[in-house]
Amino acid sequence: MVNNSSVQSAGSQAPALPLKAEVEGLNFYYGSKQALKNINLLVYEKKVTALIGPSGCGKTTLLRCFNRMHDLYPGNRYEGCITLTSDQSNLLKADPIEVRMRIGMVFQKPNPFPKSIYENIAYGLRVRGISKRSVLDEVVERSLRGAAIWDEVKDRLNEAGTALSGGQQQRLCIARALATNPEMILFDEPTSALDPIATLSIEDLIGDLKDQVTILIVTHNMQQASRVSDYTAFMYLGEMVEYDRTEKIFNNPAQQQTADYVSGRFG
Ligand SMILES: Nc1ncnc2c1ncn2[C@@H]1O[C@H](COP(=O)(O)OP(=O)(O)OP(=O)(O)O)[C@@H](O)[C@H]1O
To answer: Is the distance from the beta carbon of residue 258 to the nearest atom of ligand 1 less than 6 Å?
Structure first.
């Protein structure tokens, strides 16, 4: 049974950490189908929060609310709010273009633009009217360094992004997300298409990135959630069952359902 009480902060023992965002009473509908039910969640600043749960529980749907991806399809509807603490803006009511500059996204499958490595980073700035070469050069280098791929590509910036290995392409996509100095980055199963070595390098990178940005990650991989995240939210059938420090969720969860899921008894 899902625990219907609204689960908000990450457990009673959580210290009072700075907040990046607060999800309150979030419902989401694909047409007439309700995929998220009264989600309440505090997202802590410069921490990694993992969303876990069995297939179809609503992890990706919740993640995509944060950068208004659902607006791209007709019939989708949100209720409730996701408030960014920095300026108290409700992401569900703000201009979606602005939201996507503040909240970057990295997808399951690396999806570089069919452009050069340099342009993969610079393109998003150009479409926002930034064309000064020195500024673009600086952002390209900073972003590629931030994604731990600068040394590998600095001498081949004019080569196609799609010519890189899968793991390098994913780091290029992370660099692209960093270019706008986002406040949060959303990762949707970012290593599911990668081999174990590339997976570990992305996990290391996520650990490094949290010094500068708040991270929300959807993962099916329990070991990955326990390795990379500080907080974990367990969802089931569109509801938030339990949210706490990752260590607590994996070692001593409050709900039996969470214990069953993290120990592999269902899902
Ligand atoms: N475009 C859509 N139209 C209608 N229903 C959808 C759509 N996308 C997802 N759903 C439904 O919403 C619910 C949540 O889906 P979601 O993809 O968020 O789950 P998930 O936990 O991320 O699953 P998975 O781990 O398999 O990716 C599921 O019942 C799914 O069938």
So the answer is: no
